[in-house]
Design brief:
Elements lengths: L8 H10 L5 H21 L2 H18 L9 H19 L26 H4 L3 H12 L3 H11 L5 H8 L3 H20 L7
Helix pairs in contact: 1-2, 2-3, 2-4, 2-7, 3-4, 4-8, 6-9, 7-9
Length: 194
Amino acid sequence: MDARTPTHPDRELVDAVLRGAPGAFERLVRTYQGLCWHIIYRMVRHPDDAQELCQETFLRVHQCLHQYRYESALKSWIGQIAYSIALRHLQRKRIPLFEPAADEEAGSPLENLGGDFDLEQAFGDAQAARRLHAAIDTLPPVQRAVLTLYHLEEATIPEIATITGLASGTIKSHLFRARLRLRGVLEGPLGVAV
């Protein structure tokens, strides 16, 4: 490859923002606001707090963009900031972030990550979608965030690891536990949360 190959779109966008190109930061916000909202809202579950924390995230991105070193995708870097801001918010409010360890399931949670439960199929109709969202809301904040990143943002396990700072095995465990819990809620009588 020639050293003059086109730059990566992340680099182009970051460079444009750093040099103050008109509309560049707004483009960055438009591109990544859905990611921030998915992460933060799924963790804090309060629209006003989520909106404030999203604004805080982009303020932090603007202040620290000069420190971005292209070691990960810009999406992962921004997601990491959103995740850490939401995490600190929950810690300040003393909200439990994880399930108690006493809830261990039998067998390895790393077995069969995909399982036979299809989240996309659960969205088949409006009633199932409402039940699914209600069931997701019963999950602990970190599981909600990991599930959202994996299924809605289609982030890979390594990308989620970069965003959350969690080990890959821990992420797989959270996904397994979340799916297991959702399956129980959605396959229960009338899909009523237990």
